[in-house]
């Protein structure tokens, strides 16, 4: 995966987001950085079905960016508030980028009438892709004070996540002469940038200005061939229309002496067809090497053929003067030309390259080098985590038994699992009742879902159950009664290798789910205890909480085992574990038996797993917040960076996980049990359909 992902985010309208995005690709490429590009969410021009940014790069580089998610899909997801599912698809497409890229430029979205939620989506992209933000804006006024005030106001209004890593700012369309005068420097890009950075040095603690791009009118000059369709005209003489550019439009209806100033190279002359004097003047200009952009002849009348023949040789000089004939009035044609879409045509490779070069020249190369060489801690975002476990589950389809098969949320989750190809779910229960639940909830049960009626099957597990519990004096009568419980029945299916994993708890207590597993599945050979973890999908990253479901008051040995197990679980699901042993005291600032237990457990874990990054006792704020860590535990390798949290007892862990889950409205996947020979996972009785869905996915991955 790339070392850095930069997300370009527009602040304001008409800031040139696409130009800046592809220009940053050129700037990084010139530094020898292996750079890729990704337009995650489609936002095509209304008249086009393709993404311009990707098309520009395909026309000028060897990059072939993946297709963005169509704009219609984006709007549909937003209307249904399915932004999490949308971000999962973003991560999926992001992972198709070549693995050799060191840096990826991701282009954000522009706020439009059709997409008013652009800011929210950009924030979601930044979180999902763990991206560093480059803000793109246009200065409201060309003075240092005005720019500083504008940027301060901008930062205050942005989502908090944009400020997690100090954002970069690139100023586009800057009126260079005015700003240069204010800064008392020259108007070229490097001087402007250096001078502005020096003037803002004392007040720009929350951002870094990395680019000042002067306004280049010539870069906005379209070719004549790009406006022919807009004018709905007829080409009288094509001339050099693929190369000549329109730098200015001159509507000429006066006599020749009064329009001589319009005869300049790059001017597009718009005049009525019967103005032979102006046609002759244009021909004379061509003989003097004045390369007009073109000549647009308007009105219903045709130009005098004798005049056109007389001027023919002059019109063919220097590649030829493009001449276009249109039936509309000069005023109407001028209006259309002034309303010309300023976006770069994909076919204009020369202009695309010039724009990219201008952006690259105006960007701070030293900043890019330094940032690309700086290690940025990677956070596994919830969409990336969900995509990872779903992708892994799909590689080897596992059979997961759901003993609460008649429960509505369970049926809904099983259907979604089948639709995504995550697992082959086995619903235990009365088939008629299960089908009725599906009917009432408008659910179509896919073929991947199995329904198993336990009634005719219970007796076949009688002998195996008695054998597994023969040392516990279990009677046949008691065994028959135990098998009446669908959780016990499903656990026997797992014990006999008929399924690969079990998920329960939507209507059963944790004890009802775990007790049969402890009795029939038992602990793994290397485990000292069975414990659990929750994967807490916070907005910015996934954290691991343990143990929040099984051990009421573990001793130091068991707590150390929970820490090691939880770190292994985190690593197996793509999280590089940094383990904080949580207490009400930080590194000996308080005393008491509970603090001492956590300290001992930390030492035991270090001895048993010396490669583990672990520290404790740590208070939760010291473990998570860098500013607090700098004060309370400045020498700790864990404080301020932790992503795995081990709580001292069940009371603390369960209370904390539920408070975070409900207050922050986050998905909590789990509890996922650790230490069993086969995967059995519990649900909270308040679990949502998403909670159940991803717990099934976790179980399927464990089964692999």
Automatic annotation (TrEMBL):
Primary site of residence: cytoplasm
Domain annotation DRTGG: ranges: 226-338
Reaction(s) catalysed (UniProt annotation): acetyl-CoA + phosphate = acetyl phosphate + CoA
Subcellular location: Cytoplasm
Keyword Signal in annotation: no
EC number: 2.3.1.8
GO molecular function, one term: phosphate acetyltransferase activity
GO BP, sorted A to Z: acetyl-CoA biosynthetic process
Occurrences of domain Phosphate acetyl/butaryl transferase (ranges): 385-700
GO CC annotations, alphabetized: cytoplasm
Record has Cytoplasm as a keyword: yes
Key words of the record: Acyltransferase, Cytoplasm, Transferase
Highest taxon, organism lineage: Bacteria
This protein's pathway: Metabolic intermediate biosynthesis; acetyl-CoA biosynthesis; acetyl-CoA from acetate: step 2/2
SUBUNIT field: Homohexamer.
Family: In the C-terminal section; belongs to the phosphate acetyltransferase and butyryltransferase family.
Domain notes: The N-terminal region seems to be important for proper quaternary structure. The C-terminal region contains the substrate-binding site.
Function of the protein: Involved in acetate metabolism.
Protein name (database record): Phosphate acetyltransferase
Organism: Haloferula luteola
